[in-house]
Design a protein that fits this description.
Blueprint (H helix, E strand, L loop, with lengths): L1 H4 L2 E6 L2 E6 L4 H14 L1 H4 L3 E5 L7 H13 L3 E6 L3 H9 L11 H6 L9 E4 L8 E4 L2 E4 L8 E4 L3 E6 L3 E4 L9 E5 L4 E4 L2 E2 L12 E5 L5 E5 L4
C-alpha cells in the first residue's frame, strides 16, 4: 500500500488541497489517490481537491468516473492541471478549472511543519451531526456547524455561520489560536488544552471571537471582521 500511495503527493494550497501525480499508468494513479483518501477520511472530509496530472492523457469518462468516486467520499474535484492539451480540454468540457495558485516551494516544505498563514482548508457547506473534520492548519467554514458535528484544527477556525457543535482550535497545543463565528453558541469550544463551558443559544447573537486571555482562560469577545 505504501508503494501505491507514494504515487500521489498531497499538499495544502489557498483553495483547498492539491494532489500531484507521479509518472505512472492512470489506473495506478487513481487507485493511489483513493487509497490515500480512504486511509484518512476525516482529514479529507468536505475538501476541495485540485489535481496536477502532468502529461497524463485523460478522456471524459476518466474524469467523470473519478469525480463521482470523490463525490462519494465527500470531496469536490474543482480543478485539473495538465501539460496535455487533450486532458486540459476534457477538464474544461466538464467545467473544471485548469489553472490554480500553486504553493511556492518554501510553502511546500512547511506544510508538514508548524502551520503558516496560507495553509487552510475551506469547507463550503453546513456540517451536520456525525461529521468530523480534522486538518493540520486553519479551517474556514462557509456554513453552520450543527449539534453533533466536530471541527479539529491545528490552527485557527473561522465559521461564517452558526456554531452549535464542537470546535477545537490549536489542537497540538497552540495557545495563540482563535475561534470566530457569526453565532458562537457552541456545544463546546477548545483552544489547546483549555475547554469552555457549554454555551447556550443567544436570542440576539453577534459575531464573536474566542481566544485564551492573558490570565490563561478561554473567553469570547465581540468580533469585528476586517
Amino acid at each position: 500500500m505504501e508503494q501505491i500511495t507514494s504515487l500521489i503527493q498531497i499538499k495544502g494550497i489557498r483553495d483547498g488541497l492539491l494532489a500531484t501525480f507521479m509518472d505512472a499508468p492512470w489506473e495506478d494513479q487513481r487507485i493511489a489517490l483513493l487509497a490515500q483518501i480512504d486511509e484518512r477520511p476525516s482529514f479529507f472530509q468536505g475538501a476541495r481537491l485540485a489535481m496536477d496530472v502532468g502529461s497524463q492523457i485523460l478522456k471524459v469518462n476518466d474524469l467523470v468516473d473519478l469525480r463521482d468516486q470523490l463525490s462519494e467520499r465527500n470531496l469536490i474535484l474543482w480543478a485539473v492541471v495538465s501539460e496535455s492539451p487533450i486532458t486540459e480540454q476534457t477538464a474544461q468540457l466538464l467545467g473544471l478549472a485548469t489553472r490554480i495558485s500553486k504553493p511556492r516551494p518554501e510553502e511546500q516544505r512547511q506544510f508538514a511543519d508548524p502551520i503558516n498563514d496560507d495553509t487552510a482548508l475551506f469547507v463550503n457547506k453546513t456540517l451536520r451531526s456525525g461529521t468530523r473534520i480534522e486538518f493540520p492548519g486553519h479551517i474556514v467554514v462557509i456554513g453552520d456547524i450543527n449539534p453533533g458535528a466536530e471541527i479539529v484544527a491545528e490552527g485557527n477556525v473561522i465559521v461564517w455561520g452558526r456554531v452549535r457543535g464542537m470546535i477545537h482550535a490549536g489542537c497540538k497545543g497552540d495557545r495563540s489560536a482563535f475561534i470566530c463565528a457569526l453565532d458562537l453558541s457552541a456545544n463546546q469550544l477548545r483552544i489547546a488544552d483549555e475547554v469552555s463551558a457549554t454555551l447556550k443559544p443567544q436570542k440576539d447573537p453577534k459575531p464573536e471571537i474566542a481566544s485564551i486571555n492573558s490570565e490563561g482562560r478561554l473567553q469570547a469577545d465581540l468580533w469585528h471582521p476586517g
